[in-house]
């Protein structure tokens, strides 16, 4: 997960895998460009190859233009030892951190006593529990 708000990134399950059973799926949609709809998988080569064959047979991969743009950008960042990539990810994380903090300020001000939640350390979502509501389906449908 690239979208983390901590000074150092958490270890991934893939980095701790000792049996060759873990696949890691990443999306570049929020890091590079919303709507890009491109991502990648890393893991043990036999599993990744099987998944790749399935993807070729089922969806024919993502848009070729998006792949070409992403490849060109990654090749450019690779030339500078990925420093540009690291800076870009840091900039995006800082942007979303400000968005998160602004949202949480509003939630603290307007939802006090109505909902409880934890401050997320990564990602784009805040999971809330509505206090006094056992099943939120009816509330959502209203």
UniProtKB/TrEMBL annotation:
It comes from the Eukaryota. Its cofactor is pyridoxal 5'-phosphate. Residues 14-131 form the Aminotransferase class I/classII large domain. GO terms for biological process: alpha-amino acid metabolic process. Keywords: Aminotransferase, Pyridoxal phosphate, Transferase. The keyword Transferase applies. InterPro entries: Aminotransferase_I/II_large, Class-I_PLP-dep_aminotransf, PyrdxlP-dep_Trfase, PyrdxlP-dep_Trfase_major. Coiled coil: none annotated. Pfam families: Aminotran_1_2. One of its GO terms (molecular function) is pyridoxal phosphate binding. This is Aminotransferase class I/classII large domain-containing protein. It comes from Fibrocapsa japonica.
């Amino acid at each position: 997960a690239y979208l983390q708000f901590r000074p150092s990134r958490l270890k991934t399950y893939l980095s701790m895998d000792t049996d060759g059973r873990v696949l890691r799926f990443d999306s570049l949609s929020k890091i590079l460009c919303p709507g890009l709809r491109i991502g990648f998988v890393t893991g043990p080569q036999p599993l990744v190859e099987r998944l790749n064959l399935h993807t070729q047979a089922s969806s024919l991969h993502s848009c070729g233009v998006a792949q070409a743009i992403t490849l060109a950008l990654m090749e450019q960042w690779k030339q500078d030892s990925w420093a540009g990539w690291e800076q870009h990810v840091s900039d995006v994380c800082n942007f979303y951190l400000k968005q998160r903090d602004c949202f949480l300020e509003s939630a603290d001000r307007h939802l006090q006593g109505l909902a409880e939640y934890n401050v997320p350390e990564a990602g784009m979502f805040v999971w809330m529990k509505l206090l006094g509501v056992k099943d939120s389906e009816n509330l959502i449908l209203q």
